Amino acid sequence: MTLSFTGWQKRTLLVLAGFAVLALFALAFTAGRVSAAPSYPGSSSADAGFARDMQAHHHQAVEMSMIVRDEVDDETVKAVAYDIVTTQQQQAGQMYAWLEEWGLAQSSSQPRMEWMAEASGDHAGMEMGSGGESMLLPNGLMPGMATDEQLDDLRSATGDDAARQFLELMIVHHEAGVDMAAAGAELAATDQVRELARKIEAGQQAEITLMQGMLDDL
Where do the DUF305 domain residues begin and end (predicted)? Predict the structure, then answer.
């Protein structure tokens, strides 16, 4: 049987076919946009936890370096302090920008360092206990962080005494930073976080060796 269409029927079919083609294009475009949308880490992810906690760690390292920079005579100690300020300020800014890009708050109700619970190995004694207790120190600080009293003592010190206190505090600070960075490199899901974590781990480990030698020479 041969179908025949009148002129208006043909025009109607052409219009409907056009709408169908447009609908297919719209569907394909929408699907492409959805599939291309970036997938960002969540607020409770290791990526976000690392970015928040390492920022806090970096901020105190910068603070200690700024305190001692003008109080010591040793040019090598001054150079180390300056390097810590410039490097860690840049890295902290990078982590701040990540959280902004991911649409996440800079702070969280999640306890600090909880994201490290699944890391393998012992991270400077920061492993979670069998009951899942906090990794924080009894005083509530993250491992490696100087207390207010230690910071006050550093502010009051001058010369070689300031240099010695700074190196002692910063070595402990870096040791904890290395372990946090190792956990970040292991647990983070995004390449950019893992890359920065590995960079921090290597850089601070090298600075620990340098500062230990400087401390021995004082």
Answer: 47-215
pTM: 0.79
- The four Cα atoms 63, 65, 70, 71 give a dihedral, to 10 degrees, of 100
Dist CA 61 CA 21 (whole Å): 61
Which residues touch 84 (CB under 8 Å, ≥6 apart)? 61, 62, 65, 170, 207
DSSP assignments along the chain, one per residue = ------HHHHHHHHHHHHHHHHHHHHHHHHHHHHHHS--PPPTTSHHHHHHHHHHHHHHHHHHHHHHHHTT---HHHHHHHHHHHHHHHHHHHHHHHHHHHTT--SS-SSPTTGGGGG--S-STT-PPPTT---SS-TTSPPTTPPPHHHHHHHHH--HHHHHHHHHHHHHHHHHHHHHHHHHHHHH--SHHHHHHHHHHHHHHHHHHHHHHHHHHH-
Q: Amino acid letter at 202?
A: A
Q: 171-203: per-residue pLDDT in tens?
A: 999 999 999 999 999 999 999 999 999 999 999
